[in-house]
Amino acid sequence: MSVTYFYDGIKKNNPEMQKEISATIITIGNELLIGQVVDTNSAFMSKVLNKTGVVVKRKIAIADNMAEIKKALDAEINQVQIILITGGLGPTSDDVTKQTLCTYFKSEMVVNKRALQHVKNLYEKVYKKSLNPVNLKQAEVPAACKVILNKRGSAPCMQFEKGRSMIFSLPGVPYEMEGLMPDIIGVIRQRFQLPKVIHHTLVTSGIGESELAAILKDFEKEIGPKAELAYLPGLGVLRLRLSATVMGREEEDRLRRQFQKLKKLAGDYLISTDDTPVEEIIGKMLNKKKKTIATAESCTGGFIASMITSVSGASDYFPGSVVSYSNNIKMTVLGVKASTLKKHGAVSEEVVREMLKGIVKRMKSDYGVAVSGIMGPGGGSAQKPVGTVWVAVGSARKVVTKKFHFRFDRRRNIQSTAIRALYLLKSFLEEA
Amino acid sequence: MSVTYFYDGIKKNNPEMQKEISATIITIGNELLIGQVVDTNSAFMSKVLNKTGVVVKRKIAIADNMAEIKKALDAEINQVQIILITGGLGPTSDDVTKQTLCTYFKSEMVVNKRALQHVKNLYEKVYKKSLNPVNLKQAEVPAACKVILNKRGSAPCMQFEKGRSMIFSLPGVPYEMEGLMPDIIGVIRQRFQLPKVIHHTLVTSGIGESELAAILKDFEKEIGPKAELAYLPGLGVLRLRLSATVMGREEEDRLRRQFQKLKKLAGDYLISTDDTPVEEIIGKMLNKKKKTIATAESCTGGFIASMITSVSGASDYFPGSVVSYSNNIKMTVLGVKASTLKKHGAVSEEVVREMLKGIVKRMKSDYGVAVSGIMGPGGGSAQKPVGTVWVAVGSARKVVTKKFHFRFDRRRNIQSTAIRALYLLKSFLEEA
Predict the structure, then answer these.
(1) Residue B138 sits in the same domain as residue B21
(2) I need a labelling partner for A37 at 20 to 30 A (CA). Which of A136, B37, B60, B276 fits?
(3) In terms of domains, do B202 and B176 share one?
């Protein structure tokens, strides 16, 4: 099948975009609409699709309800080439998606042999539990679909076609959905010739969106309509993403030159051109140097340690951490002097310096991070308002300290502190 | 204005539902469609609306693009009474929402005096920075809207009306959006008589969705069409939510009786009937008992401590924590014996017992939690596969241990371990 078949009627008036393959993601589940669950699935799917060169046009969250599912499909079919549906496939009676798809595609329910064998295997060999009739229902699918087996669970992925659209229905359990995405991308790649979408991202800090926009006003005019600059406020940082759909080497080079210019314009506010999570960057640096890091945390309460250990293999460079929430523990476990606490207070440059020395000694690590601050909502004063944080990074021999002021709620203050502390550590490691 | 005005044509054929006030949430931002950002805003908004008695029908994520915004508004206006739009209001040129709304509502841009005064105040008094022309643009709004000032930032909320719908446009910065929601709810409450939506939630563990569904098959038939039972798989737990829109005391009582029955049916799998985050429940229990807790964490790397300290006021009952990622730190800081580690391995009942005794002593706390496990993807063996975790909770005098097996990816294994450990602690505290 030729790719152009799918372009008919889609942005035909814009030759730049004719090669665009677009998608809609439909997430199904009442829990999304009452806010009980944050939808991480569609973000994961978007990321994977985007990397593959598929443009996600819309994401729609609806109830697990026949009328809503039909309405959403009616609106999207023929508008995009790819529709991914996630959720509503559980074996329980609050999940009506499979039956709805069966009716929608004028099909009938059949037992799929491969799916049945898979469910049996899963229960007998992996879960070591006996099958009940509800489990067996997972092997039933509309006759009109192709089945893609779900290695991580019992509900299979179902692939349908209608008009100009391919429709994939996936389970809503993140772990299972994530395991199915490579198979779906394989099917999409077989069908479509995909363009290359390139994103260059840089991370800034210490400047707001509108101030940075004022600096970049001329740059934004210069890059023209082919590239796009996005401002992405994050935790304590502001990301800039320069994107373009490139058709060849020349366009790719142009985008790279534009990004070089952007870096220069960001000047001192630039803290990284690597959009990899900072905890992963640090992990790689420490592995390469064969050095270790430990954390001494007051206000972040273990959040920095949990970021570091979210990276697989962290045990190679992370011996451990002390969360010294009380002043007493700062003294007894980390060796902060009572006189320092009394003279300067727990949120002070002097205390984070002593916490850092203490943790490096206690954990016998090469480097350390120490933080102390007031995360709110209570605990602030005129001299040290909520959001005041002192951070120290360094080694037994050399320590760098920095004071921050965050003005968010408790959760964001904690996360922002952790991220800025790790970026400070990254700079230190680059120079060490 | 009478409420019934808004019901015309909306589910008129279903008298049960006539009093339903419904909403659509439209989130705007290219970063959502490429998966760079997980949308937490719409979950927050849904939760607030749901609590108020407004039913969220659909959530739609679209690009910051005129055509897409118009298309979404065309599709939703008159379908729901309330439309909340978030995002796309930044002062930079990748944000086109405000201009689009101005055109859509056939209005013209004007400087709003209150908004201008607010922006000036914010920059001069709070940020202590000088205003630039980009900031000033935040005070420009379509003449057709009412302005609701944003106490937490410079972009105001804009309120429009069209057909049977009220449309609110809010900034996408979570902190600012969250600050505006109470004002918006105030406006909605003035306009509509809202029904009462009641949810009863219980938390189970140790049983899968399909097995629990088999147990609850008859119960689901019994509750009839007025109530709804939802299965919500979470981290290491499975929530059951029984919901109904109730019109009076009698219906409220009936739902409560049904929930009592559900609790009985859940039997030993029931671990909590309180849907409050477990870290908050524990905080309240410890405050009441005037006792303290400390954590000794290996595989969770500080995640349990960071959950405990995410609760404001945790310093009253949390002195601190030791993350003993390496065996060496287990010995030197927590006092785990070398012989125990050698004989039983780091992931063993004996080691978590010694970690618990060590942390309680080190932190001088009343209670402790200790965990050690293999979170993957590496590190598993035939005897101790990835997902094996030992947890100990207790005091210097009494310790309870439990072994878990999780079968997720690293991130979910860590989160599941932390949640199950805290629920185990909760049970211990209930009996202590």
Answers:
(1) yes
(2) A136
(3) no
The count of other CB atoms within 10 Å of the CB of residue B349 is 16
pLDDT of residue A93: 62
Q: What is the largest CA-CA distance in chain A?
A: 79
Cβ separation A92–B60 shorter than 8 A: no
DSSP-based three-state secondary structure for A123: helix
Please give the share of chain B, as a percent, with pLDDT higher than 70.
95
pLDDT digits (tens, 9 = 90+) for A96-120: 899 999 999 999 999 999 999 999 9
Q: Note whether A194 contacts B: Cβ–Cβ < 8 A.
A: no
Same domain, A43 and A137: yes
Subunit contact A43:B38, Cβ cutoff 8 A: yes
Of B58, B178, B306, nearest to A60 by CB-CB distance is: B58
What was the ipTM of the complex prediction? 0.72
Q: Do B132 and A210 touch (CB under 8 A)?
A: yes
What single-letter amino acid sits at A173? Answer: V
Which range marks the domain in which residue A24 is found? 3-191
Hey, are the CB atoms on B325 and A320 less than 8 Å from each other? yes
Chain B residues 270-329 with CB within 8 Å of chain A: 295, 297, 300-306, 308-310, 312-315, 318-326, 328-329
- DSSP for residue B156: P
**Interatomic CA distance for residues A375 and A300, integer angstroms:** 8
* CA B184 centroid distance within chain: 20
CA angle, residues A156, A162, A166, in degrees to nearest 5: 50
Which of A234, A253, A272 is the C-terminal boundary of a domain?
Answer: A272
96-115 in chain B: CB under 8 A from chain A: none
Q: Does B211 touch chain A (CB under 8 A)?
A: yes
Nearest to A326 among B94, B320, B410 (CB): B320
CB B242: neighbour CB atoms within 10 A?
A: 22
Pairwise CB contact (< 8 Å): B50 & A33: yes
Whether A135 and A241 map to the same domain: the answer is no
pLDDT of residue A122: 85
Check pLDDT > 60 for residue B14: no
CB contact under 8 A, A35 and B58: no
User: Residue B85: how many CA atoms within 13 Å on its side-chain side?
Assistant: 30
- Which of A48, A134, A199 shows the shortest C-beta gap to B210? A134
What confidence tier does B136 reach under pLDDT thresholds 50, 70, 90?
confident
CA distance B170 to B174: 10
Domain end residue (candidates: B253, B272, B291): B272
Cβ distance of A214 and B63 shorter than 8 Å: no
Q: Which of B407, B382, B402 is nearest to B390 (CA)?
A: B402
Q: What is the pLDDT of residues A178-204, one digit of tens each?
A: 999 999 999 999 999 888 888 899 999
How is B344-379 classified by DSSP, letter by letter?
A: H-SSSHHHHHHHHHHHHHHHT-SEEEEEEE--SSS-
Mutate to test the interface with B, among A11, A36, A316 (most CBs of B within 10 A): A36
A148 and A176 share a domain? yes
| A323 with B328: Cβ contact below 8 A | no
Using DSSP's 3-state secondary structure scheme, residue B278 falls into: helix
Structure tokens at A246: 């490139």
> Contact at 8 Å (CB) between A153 and A171?
yes
DSSP characters over A2-36: -GGGGTTTSSTT-GGGTT-EEEEEEEE-HHHHTTS
CA A99 to chain B, closest CA, distance in angstroms equals 17
Determine the Cα–Cα distance for residues A335 and B154; give it in Å rounded to an integer: 45
Indicate the helix (H) or strand (E) that contains B204. strand B196-204
Residues 20-79 of A with CB under 8 A from B: 30-40, 42-50, 55-63, 68, 72, 75
CA-based nearest distance A159→chain B, Å = 22
